[in-house]
Hints:
The radius of gyration is 61 Å and the shape is elongated. The protein is an alpha+beta fold. Helix 24 (about 870-900) crosses helix 28. Helix content is about 55%, strand content about 10%. The strands form 8 sheets. Strands 2-1-6-7-8-9 form a 6-stranded antiparallel sheet. The longest helix is centred in the first third of the chain and has 81 residues, at about 270-350. This is AAA family ATPase.
Amino acid sequence: MTSHTSLYPGQFRISRIQLINWGTFHGYFSIPVARKGFLITGGSGSGKSTLLDAMSAVLVPQSHLKFNAASQQDLGRHNGRSLVSYVRGAWRQQENAQTGEIAPEYLREGATNSVVALTYDNGAGKQHTLIAIFRLNGGENSVGQIKKLYGLVPGDEDVDKLSPLLTRSLDTRKIKALYKGPGASFTPTYATFADRFRKRLGIKNVEGQLLLHRTQSAKSLSSLDQLFRDYMLDKPSTFSRAEEAVEQFEDLRQAYLRVEDVKAQIDTLAPLPQLHAQRATAEADKHKAEAMSEALPAVRARLVAEELDSRIRALSAQQVEAQSEVESLEADVAHLDEAERRAAMAVSQLSAGELDALRAKMETADIEIEHRSKEFQRLAAAVGEWTEHYELSPQGFAELQANAKLRLSDFETDSADLTNQQQEAGVAARDAATACARLDSELRSFSSRRTNIDKALVELRSQLARDTGYAESELPFAGELIDISPQQADWEPVIQKLLHAFAATLLVPEEARKAINQWVNSRNVGTRLEYRTIPEFTSAPASARSPRQLIHKLEFPDHPMTAWVRQHISRRFNYECVESVTELDKVTQTPAVTRDGLESRPKDKDGSTRFIKDDRTRFAGTAWYRVGSTNTAKIELLRSQLTQAKATASATARQVHNLNRKMDILRTQRDKAQQVLETKFQDIDTASAKARKQDLQAQYDSLASSPEAQALAAAHQHAKEKLNAARARLNQAQKHLGDVEGELKRSTERRHAIGTVPEIADKDIAKAVEEALHKGKRTLTIDNIDARRDEVQADLQDAARTAARRIEDANGKIVSVLHAYLSQWPAEAADLEPQASFAGEGIEKLKYLRADRLADFRARFLELLNGQTVQNLSHLASSLRHARSDIETRMEFINKSLERSPFNGERTLRIDVKDARGQVVQDFQRDLDAATSHSLAEISEDEHDAALQRYHALDKILSRLGSSHPEDIRWRNVVLDTRRHVSFIGRECYPDGTTANTYQDSASLSGGQAQKLVFFCLAAALRFRLAEPDQDVPTYGSIILDEAFDRADPTFTRTAMSVFTSFGFHMILATPFKLIQTLSPYVDGTIVVNYDEPLINGRPQARTGYSLIDASTLSSPNPDQPHPEEPADADA
């Protein structure tokens, strides 16, 4: 190895690499590194990358460290290497014969340490050794368990002397004591270590440090865009500006949320004034209705009294007038009565009273004829259904009575049969009516709710949910989480009976325990309430041992508490469902039940066995059922059953009606036959009665046929007629007088009963009552005033009830508003309660919010909106607009570096910048410009809509900029990373500036051309990152390349190496054997890494070593005879 200690004096280059237990480098190794250049070669899998990864472990922050990065680029995946695999010495994968698992095999199983040291020499007498120590204790195999210590020590220090200090632990105190000279420092923190060695070695910043690491896998750089975007250009300030804007926007967002919060409070309380007014109006209406109702009797009494006073005056006048008329008519009747007596006396004196006697007998005969005719008509109507014609003679009447006797004898038999039919039909009708009533009651009950649980319990739950703020779905009854399988419908009565009590158990989340307990304890719930608090997580129920167990006949809807219900039923209701008593006796270990409801229990300790049969609910119907997540099917079944029951009831009712009608007809026929038998012939013999009347009439006519008798009779008749007429007028007058006097008496009594009418203080109420009484369709009178009073009273009661409901409704809504408000803003509970009586306080709170708080928060919101957030975004927009020109300015420095070295013959390379913004970036910049346009113009308070519009535009942008969602993070990187808003074009130029070739991207180039282009630009990038503008040679010079130039031809390889060396770089190259001769002019030191698996203690063990060679004396391997593959890298 040739000495070049004076090459580039002042530039730090790696001079030695030391390893202790790194990967398959087992033990201590010290590898000298030549100053001119250093070549690491060896077969595939020999350990070249292991050595380079050791240097990376010292030079690269852990968060950016990628082991064997060059191979990862080819594999496209993680290669499995890690700091743990290197510290432990993982060298192969082995399958566990017992478990079948594949796991790495380690050289170092117990507590172990790895040490990597890099010595840098500036060729002018200064040396620094960088030390990294890693320790894993026994049983530790994760990166997070690795203990680390980093040291920076002046001079070229041997680290082999550290081994005795690391046998038991990482003793920092002893290690520091070992290197206690001036300038030595140790720290467990890599960032501190890196800051120190960058200053010592002349690396300007962490970006330069990372570029050195990426250069190690330079062959993975495939385009100019990737090179300049990822390694040349610094992270743009747009990210920090965006972060600052997002942070400051949080104050604006909170101000906006406070405004929205106050507006939400206002919106929540806004109904209160109207509800308060509605309640006041309803209270006034209720008060008026009650006052009118209270005044109604007095107003009615006054109106009746006034009407009675008027009527009494009128009736008194009518009485006097009627009395005079009666007295006049009485005198007329007395006079005419005397005239009639004188006329009658004259007739009597002429016929000695014979005519009067004959007349009396004829009147008696007429009465008898009329009586017998009526009896005959009645009898004819009775027998009309038997016969239309019968002879009115003793013989015909005898035949009619014989017919009646026959009908009476048939009646007993017919009525007995009909009575039996009536009884049977009546029982059927009553059963049908009972079934209809039961089904109708059940249907109404179930239709009023969606659950099978008792209505009282459902209403109680609804009130509990409203008052505690929980949804009813969060407080299910156990029965609502259980369904009986449709295939097990015939078992439903038994299952309903077994689970009846449990189904009504209310299930409460564990976190609601306190609120529910307080609510239940503070009031009378009015019924029996049982509830259980349910934990959030429930163990799975044990598998049912028998397929006949009750759990298999049930289904469970999806609900957070379903698991607990299943578990509880499996444990507490583990009945076996059997078909017969014989099978029941065979079940001895668990409860069992038959289809008919006979239950058995396991045998007690005293040897007895308990049996239960409870048929109290057998005829209760489905209304008694509680189990079921919904009652829809039950309602449909009840409707179908009710329709069928109504049809049956209607049919039985018609049958009963028809039978009753037949019985009525039969009884009527019996009564008519009885009537015929009870009638005598002489009662209907009108012929003999008429003959007697004719005989009497003949006698009378003969006696009264003389002229004198006729004249006297006519005079008597005329006098009699005049008397009768006068008497009729008198009777009418007396009746009228009696009516007047009676009405007068009644009116007077009614008036005395009313007495003094009380005065009503509220004249408006009295007037309103009187108007209400007069509003009827008929004119108000003393006769209809009571009916009208009842109507008005009913209307007033309805009005009062309606007003009370309005008050209750308003109070309920007020309570709901206050409850909603306090639920969302509980801090306000100090001044408010969810009670109707606090409506006034709520309204005052609303006024305060509208008048003061909203204005304050809006002012703060506008102040922030017009502040720094918008200015930050304006600066961000400006940075995005000027990003390309800034990059072009920076690229000028790169181009100046490129001008120093020919790229192809006399031609040089120049990099131009081209706009590459996609649609997403352009849309973002357009949105940003729109949101920040006129940003310096403040928005006043009267432009609130404009302020909200600007806020929402800002919020849309900044919410996405601050989002942690992966898609938004990708979007943020796209729109803010201005390095990706441009693309880079390489132009190969003649000395006069004309373009020979243009390289849009490297994808269209061959592998060698692409490597040439990228490496050339990489060299310029390294110079830009590591050298000061006025430096010819950078202070730090060592560049590591893994698998360098593996696809390039020898000419380009020499060109690229000339580029790197012309920039003053110290090249450390890991490359295959084929490039040794090509690279030998640029290096003065070469090692060959070798790998072997010797038998140690009878077992193969991986070992990696190296040997120094003189590369200039080697010939390139024959390409037709490829180097044989080495064993797989131990750490791969």
